[in-house]
Structure formats: C-alpha cells, structure tokens
Design a protein that fits this description.
Number of domains: 2
Distance between the termini: 46 Å
Order of helices and strands: HEHEHEHHEHHEEHHHEHHHEEE
CATH class of the largest domain: Alpha Beta
CATH architecture of the largest domain: 3-Layer(aba) Sandwich
CATH superfamily of the largest domain: HUPs
Radius of gyration: 21 Å
Number of strands: 10
CATH topology of the largest domain: Rossmann fold
C-alpha cells in the first residue's frame, strides 16, 4: 500500500485500533491491515460504534463481531442512545463527535499506538466540496490528512488515496459482501447530497477526473497551509487568548487570519464550524468596530475588542 509507505503511517510492531463500521471501506481496511499483520508483527484491535440510527443497526455490530472472530481479533463495540442524539441538534455533528470520543477512549483503553480509519479518495473529494460550499479557507481546503494527531491520539488513513471503485472491486474479487448502510443512500446528510448529486454532475458535465483533481487540490493546499501555519506561530508569541491589536493590524492578511484561527483553536480545541465569514467578521472587529465590540462564534466562543487587545473567551 503506497499510502502507508508515503506517509510512514505504520511501523513494525504497532498496535492499531481499526475502526470498522462493516461497510466496504472499513472492511477492506481491516482485511488489508490483517494481510500485513504477520509481516510487520502488528497487533490489531477492532472497534465498532453502533449509532443506533437504524432499527437494524445492531446487525452491523454482529457482522463486525463475526469478522473479529474469523480473524481471531479482539473487538470492542458500543451502542449510542439515539434519544440523546435527537436532543443534540445536528446528527452529523453529534455522530462525528461521538465517534471521535469512542475511538480515542478505546485506543487509550487497549493501549493502541494509533487508530486506523477507512476514508478513501472519494471521501477526500467530498470533504473539499463540502467545506468549499459551506465557506472555508486554506485549512478547510486541505481536506482530510493521511496522518493527524487529535487530542493526543494518532489517526491514520491508509486508504485515503484509493478510489471507492477500487475498494469495491477488491471485495468483489474476494467474494466478500460488506454491510450497506441504507442511510448512505438518503439525502438526509449534506455529504450524501454531495456524493449522490453534485459529484456525479461535475464528473459527467465538466471533468471525469474530478475526484483526483479535488484530492490533488487538497494535497497542494495542505503543504501551503502547513508552511504558513508555522510562520503564523512564530509571530505574536505569548498569550494566544489576548492578541495585541496594533501588532495584528501590521500582519499580512494571510498570517493575520491564521493567527486568529490559532487562537480560536487554542480555546475550543479546533476550528470546526469556523467559516471564512467568521474570520472576516473578526477582521472587521480589528479594523473598524469600536472598543468593547464583541463577535460571537459557534460553540460559545466570543472575541471582545478592548483598547489594546483582542480577548478570546468562552461563555
């Protein structure tokens, strides 16, 4: 697997928590890693989160458990209470956060070195389009990383450069039928609309290689973003929650915007749901709005303009 070598995703004797939904991507990932187990002396542990969103979702959990038994691998399964999800607002956001917490907690519990996820080339392209349509900057256009540390846990994506069609062909050759989540066919989630409507339209009408084009954009932007992010971290050192306004105003707009994002990320652990428009509001706060003005951002983050500083806080 070229992606593993290219990004140094796996080392000999690694213990890897493999996130398996039972769908094509995660099942192919599990089988690929299992094929490397003996050669690299890997220790694999399967993790499955049952969203409870469908009445038959428990069958997926049983399917994953059966594969753990076939491969003689330990399996950890957790089911989410759907009633709680319905009280939380966005189901997409709720499920994403719960998946993240489950994988991090399980990885720590079983002492795994990293968590392997089944994102593929199609997922990368879909993510870039989703973020573009919602409003984003270089960070969002960077797409999904092949390797990323999240809250102290290393997540890897060995299939990130593999098209979904190749994954389907791989399973078909092996005569393996994965679980198919019926909600993936429904346009109840924004990603599904991108997958079923927009990408086929772009592929058919404008560019048959749209997936590779979008993935290439994400890779190119990620390198640019990484460099600029390093530059931004070297300026205005000190308290990231109190930035000097006069010094901010002298920064190049690219570095200024990254500095603002870094302060937001320091406060809330990331910049998810922070759009380009939010950053423009903060620029307006710096340059035109009066002292004591406040800009409110998602997840309870606010920024107040004092005489000399921008003060970042949560309420």
């Amino acid at each position: 697997m070229k992606t593993i070598a290219r990004y140094s995703l796996i080392q000999p004797k690694d213990k890897i928590l493999v996130a398996v939904s039972g769908g094509p991507d995660s099942l192919a990932l599990l089988l690929k890693l299992f094929s490397l187990q003996s050669k690299l002396k890997l220790a694999l542990h399967v993790a499955h989160l049952d969203h409870g969103f469908r009445k038959d979702s428990g069958l997926d959990a049983l399917f994953v458990k059966s594969w753990g038994q076939k491969l003689n691998l330990p399996v950890t399964i957790k089911r989410l209470p759907l009633a709680e999800a319905k009280r939380k607002g966005s189901l997409e956001e709720f499920f994403r956060e719960e998946r993240l917490k489950f994988f991090i907690q399980t990885a720590k519990l079983v002492k795994a070195d990293k968590v392997a996820l089944g994102h593929n080339l199609n997922d990368q392209a879909e993510t870039v389009l989703m973020r573009l349509l919602r409003g984003t900057g270089l960070s969002g256009l960077s797409g999904i990383s092949a390797k990323r540390n999240i809250r102290g846990t290393l997540f890897i994506r060995p299939l990130l450069e593999t098209p979904r069609s190749q994954i389907d062909q791989y399973l078909k050759r092996k005569g393996i039928k994965p679980c198919i989540d019926s909600t993936n066919r429904e346009d109840i989630f924004f990603r599904n609309k991108i997958r079923h409507d927009l990408i086929p339209f772009l592929r058919g009408k404008y560019n048959p290689n749209i997936l590779s084009v979008l993935a290439g954009l994400a890779e190119s932007v990620s390198y640019d973003y990484e460099y600029l992010d390093q530059v931004a971290r070297r300026v205005l050192k000190g308290n990231p929650l109190r930035l000097n306004i006069k010094k901010l105003a002298k920064l190049h707009p690219a570095i200024l915007r990254l500095k603002l994002r870094q302060s937001i990320a320091f406060l809330q652990g990331g910049t998810r749901r922070i759009t380009f428009q939010h950053i423009k509001e903060l620029e307006d706060l710096i340059f035109t709005r009066p002292i004591d003005s406040i800009v409110d951002l998602p997840k309870g983050v606010s920024i107040k303009k004092t005489r000399n500083s921008l003060f970042f806080f949560k309420h």
